[in-house]
Each structure stands twice: as C-alpha cells, then as structure tokens.
Amino acid sequence: MPSENREKTFVRTVRGDVEPGALGQTSCHDHLIVKRTDGVLLPQKLILDDHEKTEQELERFKSHHGGTIVDAQPFGAGRDVEELSRLSRSTGVHIVASTGFHKRFFYPENFWAFSASVGEIAELFISEIEDGAYEYDYTNPFARRSRVKTGVIKTATGKEGLDSYYKKVFDAAVIAHRRTGAPILTHTELSTFGAEQARLLIQNGVEPGSIIISHMDRVIEVDRNLELGELGVFLDYDTIARERYHCDDEEVTLIKMMAAAGYEDRIVLGMDSTRERLVSYGGAAGLDYILVQFKRKLEKAGLPEETVGRMLTINPQSALTFSPVEE
What we know:
TIM Barrel
C-alpha cells in the first residue's frame, strides 16, 4: 500500500504526520516504554513499564520546551505503541515510534526474524510504517495490529558486526526505506561497525541524510566519527550523563571537535534512557537533562547557542523527515 503522504514533507509520529517544523527540541534516541517479553530475561534497569512515571518524565521534558522524542524500542522487543500514543496525547509531546529490530539480545531463541527471509522482514517493516504497528503482547508479537504508525526503521549490529543475520535485517530496511521513505536509525555496539552500517545502506540506495547512526560516542574515537561525518550521515550522540562510559566533559569535547571539523549540521542528540537514568523511576538525570544541564555545558564550553539549537532542533527535522519515494 503506497503512503498517502509521499508527495509531502512530513515526519510520522504516533499521533499522525506532522510538518518537520512542528517537532521543536528533539531527543533523537530514547526509550520511554520497554515491557517484558516471553523467553527473554531483560535486566530490571531496562524495564520501563509505568505509565505515570514515564508521563512525569515527558512533562519534565516538555516544561523545558522539549517537543519530540524518538522511542527507539522496535518490534517484538517490549515496544508498546498504544502506550506511546496515550503518552503523546496526554502530554502533547510528539513521539516517533520505531519498527525494525534491536540486537539479538532482546529476542527469544526461536524469534520469527531469525528464520524469515529478507522480503518477509521488509514487508513487516513496510506494513508497520504504512498500515499500523503491532500492539504489545507478552507472548505473541503478531497477536494484534494497532492503528498507530511507526516513523523510523531501527536496525542494529552486535559485537559480531554485519554477520548474515544482521545483514539480512539491513537489506530488509533498505527495501522498506525505498518503498516508504522512512529514515533508518541504527544501534552500534560500543561505537563499532558504524561506518560499515552506513556504507552498506548508502551503497544500496539510501541517501546519507536518511541515516542516523547511534552511540558513536559510547567509546570515543574521533577518527571513527570523522569517517561517518565524511559519509554525510547523521551522528546521534546519546552517551550523555552516563558516567560508566565517560564524563560529560569528554562528550562535550567530542561534539566541539566534530562541529569544528564542519559537521555541526550532522549531529543530533539523545539520552538513550534506562530506569537508572530517569528521575521518576528513582534514577538520575531525567529526560530534561539534555535540554538544561547538558545544553548549558555545551554553551559554557564555547559552542554558540545557534549551533546547539541546530543540533536539538534543525538537524532532527531533517533526519526524521521521510524522503521522497519514486513511483
């Protein structure tokens, strides 16, 4: 089924399509709801399943002029698009939901995608973008389809890199992107294989401006980031207020270096939150941290307010917009 909006410029949210300029300040990689699934033992720190607590976090985000959050939890991995829709309606914050797959860790050993074909996986992604995503179900991710549509395709690699399974998923994401125009958001494991991901997508016809490579700041290696900057993709820096990896000063230094190298229009920001990092769940930082404390740190370090605003507002508008699709 062709998208009814493919001639327009739009971002697809859980409440419908909006003009890119309506997004406001945006966190391009976060997690708002993550529920348990049968056959997978997720650590408690990854579980976010309390409507009121997540709603409180979104209200904090909104109170500091936050407009949009990309929820990066994809199909079959504890995603609940109906809950995301309720949260968006109650708070007024735009939420972009994800189709696609996370890394193997989030799925049971007999997960459907492990034996599915590229075409079958691509059709799943396309249908969740154009018809509506499947609702959350503890035992069966195909139990019920909702009317809530997804606005980004999530892909991932683990420590294995682009092995045969992950390459199959990336190939399916390419097909889905070319059919729908939806942007692609990737997970990198400890900042590895980002360039390999980007090259595979670009070589198969995905424009760099429709690709967001996440977590390239988890392990800070400047050359890896410069390589991706040269490829023209968006870099999502989301290891903010995560002391287990590094301090914010190192994060700020990386962002300043990339901006100085001419890539300020390729940087987007996120929090990649877990239970330990959300105030309402008893953690530290909170969804609003990126808009208050971290924004202040960037400006104090010498980045112009206009540059910081571009990373939080202008760049996400471009990165999350559906690209034109040829008939």
